[in-house]
Amino acid sequence: MLTATLRLYKNAYTGLSLHTWYLSAVMLINRSGTMVIPFMTIYCTQALHFSLTQAGFVMGLFGFGAIVGAFIGGRITDKFGFYPQQVAALLLGGIMFIITGYLHTYLSLCIGTFILSVCNESFRPANATAVAFYSSPENVTRSFSLNRLAINLGWAVGGALGGFLASANYHLLFWVDGCTNIAAAFLLLKLLPYVKSGSRNNNTKEPIILKPAYRDKVYLVFIALTILLAYSFFHIFTILPVFYKSEWHFNEQFIGILMALNGVIIVLIEMILVYSLEGTKPLITFIRAGVFLIGVAYAALNLLPPTAWTAVLSMFIITLGEIFAMPFMNSFWISRTTEANRGQYAAIYAMAWSIAQITAPIFGSQLAEDNGYNMVWWMLAAICLFTSVAFSLLGNWLQREMPG
């Protein structure tokens, strides 16, 4: 049994390119400093004494800046390549994290958060394009899973350490986040060769027919459903920590451990689960199952007693849903692209998540203040159920369009 398990783990990690591993190492260093975002709402309400609505607006500005950053990052990636865009985003984002830590008034923090987000989130389209560039069609889902593993391993380290730092001094979070961004930029320069553009075949004389992403009807439906999923998912990092602090009276250390648990579970099981599932069923099948599980996790917060074990179980179910949905969502949008237009598809996909970053904290915090947290969790469970059914219908649509 042990031998078979070890063989499964070995097979799950075999066949990925060396550059894919390097890219994941860069991501690991970057995300090991991810401390500001999961604690930003608590920082605003506890350290700066903003209202929950004001804190939600600050997080909303981070999402709005992410939309702008994703658009700019996608355009630059398609024109100049993913390599320089990643380096620039990491360096500028690192500098802005440090600066934002010194902004203590509501207006200055709003402005700083927006600029920080534009710089930091312009990294995402370039990074997604780089992962696809270094992958083959057979292992692209696993390549994204390895990248997500690095993100979540870093998230586990950053979340746990961030909880302890936050209990001592919130200002330390901004410095650590900024320095790891800058360190990741230098590691990328060291490990990965310079790539001028995203195309492997720049010298080909064969004309490339591009289908703009905004004319791909299936993709636009997929993006609309992605926004609904992302809206539900982002409450984990914005409203849920405040709920645990103010309603269930958990301390920052335990909240940080809960956030880290998400990353630990992903590190332990995502790669072998994706390896076992990839190619066995249509991508939509796994996506809709994952969305449904996230909804179940939110419903559990209302149905089960307010204990630490309930919080752990809810986080486990959310993470399992994330593992089922998100790697295969990346594979889905990549399957509709070419190397020449992948940046714009990646940008729209990143913008969908950014829209959720705006709406989740703003609407979620307002709903919590007006109607209580229980209403928030029921609403999210209902959205996830609807989205899961809608993904199922999208899958049926795709099957009808398939030739033969």
TrEMBL record:
It comes from the Bacteria. InterPro entries: MFS, MFS_dom, MFS_trans_sf, MFS_Transporters. PANTHER family: MULTIDRUG RESISTANCE PROTEIN MDTH, RESISTANCE PROTEIN MDTM, PUTATIVE-RELATED-RELATED. The keyword Chloroplast does not apply. The keyword Oxidoreductase does not apply. Keywords: Cell membrane, Membrane, Transmembrane, Transmembrane helix, Transport. GO terms for molecular function: transmembrane transporter activity. This is MFS transporter.
